[in-house]
Amino acid sequence: MVGQLPSETGRAACGVVAAVLAALAGAVTAFEALIGFATQIFRVENGQWGQLMIGEAHQPPPSAQTVPGESGS
User: Fold this and answer.
1) Could you tell me the pTM of the whole model?
2) Domain coordinates of the chain in residue numbers?
């Protein structure tokens, strides 16, 4: 397709678009690797110390929760 463009402006524009897309692909790949590394650290620390959690925290059932100002039955 680039070889069929009659002007140098068209070729230059395609070159710029290709460079931008390549840079964007590299940035997305680096971001995914960084997030994967951080997730792995959380899992290792959770297994070792049991202090860090991934996901929702455990909450007691609604019947065990108290409302301020109310006394238990």
Assistant:
1) 0.48
2) 2-51
Of 44, 63, 64, 46, the C-alpha closest to 55 is 46
pLDDT in tens, 31-63: 999 999 988 887 777 666 655 555 555 666 666
Instruction: Check: CB of residue 8 under 8 Å from CB of residue 16.
Output: no
Neighbours of 13 (CB within 10 A): 13
Beta strands in 1-73 (DSSP E): none
* Whole-angstrom distance, CA of residue 19 vs CA of residue 34: 23
* Residue 25 reports pLDDT greater than 90: yes
